[in-house]
Amino acid sequence: MEASPELPTSITSLIFPTSSYTNFSKTLSSLKRATLCITNRLRSIEEDSRFVHRIAELYNLPLVANERCGSWYISPERKAGSAYFKSTDGHQGQWGFSKRRLNLHILEIIEDFNGYASNPTASTGNKLITLKDSCIIVDSTRRGKRMPDALSKTIPIWCVVINMLLFPQQAKAHLLHTPPDVIAQSEHAQIEARLKSFLDDAKAIQFDLEPLRLKLKKPLLLFWITQDSALPKIPLKNGQYHPIICCTASRRVDGTDGSEGGYIQGAGDDSEEWSQGLTPEIFWRNKAQLLGTPKEVVPNLIRNLQEVNSMVYSIAESSLISPTKLLHVGRLAGAMGLGDARFNYIIACEHRTQRLDMEERDRNQRVLYLPCDKGKLGSRALRKQLPHLESFMSSILSNNTDPTILFTCSTGLDLAVGAALAVLCLHVDEEGRLRRVPVDSAVIDKIYIRRRLSWITTSKPEANPSRSTLQSVNSFLMQRP
User: Per DSSP, what are the bridge partners of residue 434?
Assistant: First the structure.
């Protein structure tokens, strides 16, 4: 009888045919796609949203979504607003105070909130806590992290800079606070060492601090909540500061994406990669239908819901750019149906053929079309179109010193902002008044442009000009003769 061949004693000593590797890899990829399907994402979002709403009920506070992820976890009726704190401003070694995203509108939400008139006891069984002059900022992050960098580092940097600006005499308010169980002492110390430079960056914008001091009469102080943590001890007599609660919506998953029975940590993150056009608004409006539909049919349902949503006619509201009294920015839908009485002129960053119903106004030379596509191509095209905008502004200001002007594009958030920024830099003085003679080129630098951009982002917090758009505007303004 022949001796049995030696059996392998470890996994590494196993030898598979080459085809087995390929099949095994395909199987793993298929399992991962099945786990990360849109149905599992939406169910995970719905599960985490219940936690977020319980926290809101417990503290009796408004919810603020840190975009773009946060809105998935908040029902529209409980959403008080949006914040725009980028995780990249909190990444290791890249810490910073955003000069584009000032988020000053959050101060209005905090100061204006005086507690809901009535609210049932939280379903957790805890005693209802009522805080005033506060809010909860909601965000999430993907597998492997306890908390998104936006909540653990970007917002703490923002808070301490705001405190240093508005309360220069209160030294305690200038201390950096980060979650100690998330941020190592060494990283905390490195961020702390840069606070002076962050403050200098904020001061360089030269925005008016007095209106902010009227809105915020106490310093900001941060607290953090996750599904795995105990509720923070927030003194009910919070008379010395405004508490801001940073809430991480998702619970932490330490294993693989398929290790939690279909649950996906941070399911709402990077939605452009998985949502197939579904938005938080459409999801919450049709939540029961989406969650009750077999997963293989959900993509078709989403397409149908998108079509129905696109048929709902709504006029987008434009936003006045303060401190001006005459310049507005908004979506193209905002220019339609509003009549001639509201705007004397419309600057439309799009191709003329896309809005044939505006041709009559075009013939009257009251609409300037700046032909631009969407995305980076549109941003590059804007650079070539801005000289036409300068000529148009000089022409209308020679005849009318107080024209009301609407800047529009398909979203009202990108190209329209770029066109408005160019006009703010060239034809608007520090008090927000239009001027016939353009500003001297020698006056315009990056700090000057950044200050004017802060007018737009403060007046319209959701404005989100792309880097390409801002580069086009900067290039045009700083290369003028």
Answer: 428
Q: Are strands 327-331 and 405-409 parallel, antiparallel or unpaired?
A: parallel
Q: At what angle do helices 375-399 and 415-427 cross, to 10 degrees?
A: 40
Helix (H, G, I), strand (E, B) or coil at 454: helix
Instruction: Enumerate helices (H) and strands (E) in the chain, giving the number of each.
Output: 16, 10
At residue 359, does pLDDT exceed 50? no
Of residues 127, 150, 128, the one with CA closest to residue 137: 150
Q: By the 8 A CB rule, do 76 and 49 touch?
A: no
Cα dihedral 294, 297, 299, 301 sign: negative
Distance of CA 61 to CAs 44, 138, 155, 360, Å? 23, 12, 18, 49
Q: Percent of the chain having pLDDT more than 70? A: 80
Contact 424, 364 (CB under 8 A): no
Specify the DSSP class assigned to residue 351.
Answer: -
CA distance 56 to 62: 7
Amino acid sitting at position 31:
L
Q: Is the pLDDT of residue 313 over 80?
A: no
Q: Are 379 and 418 in contact (CB under 8 A)?
A: yes
Q: Which of 66-75, 168-177, 247-256, 410-419 has the lowest mean pLDDT?
A: 247-256
Q: What pTM value is reported for the model?
A: 0.80
Q: Are 113 and 131 in contact (CB under 8 A)?
A: no
Average pLDDT for 377-381 = 92
| pLDDT tens, position by position, 115-159 | 554 444 333 344 455 566 889 999 999 877 899 999 999 999 999
Task: Measure the CA angle with vertex 50, ends 118 and 221; round to 5°.
Answer: 65
Backbone angles phi, psi at 91, to 5 degrees: -70, 150
How would you classify residue 81: left for phi > 0, otherwise alpha for psi between -120 and 50, otherwise beta? Answer: left
**For the CA atoms of the chain, what is the radius of gyration?**
26
Q: Which residues pair with 182 in a beta bridge?
A: none
Q: Where are the alpha helices (DSSP H) in 171-234?
A: 185-193, 195-205, 210-215
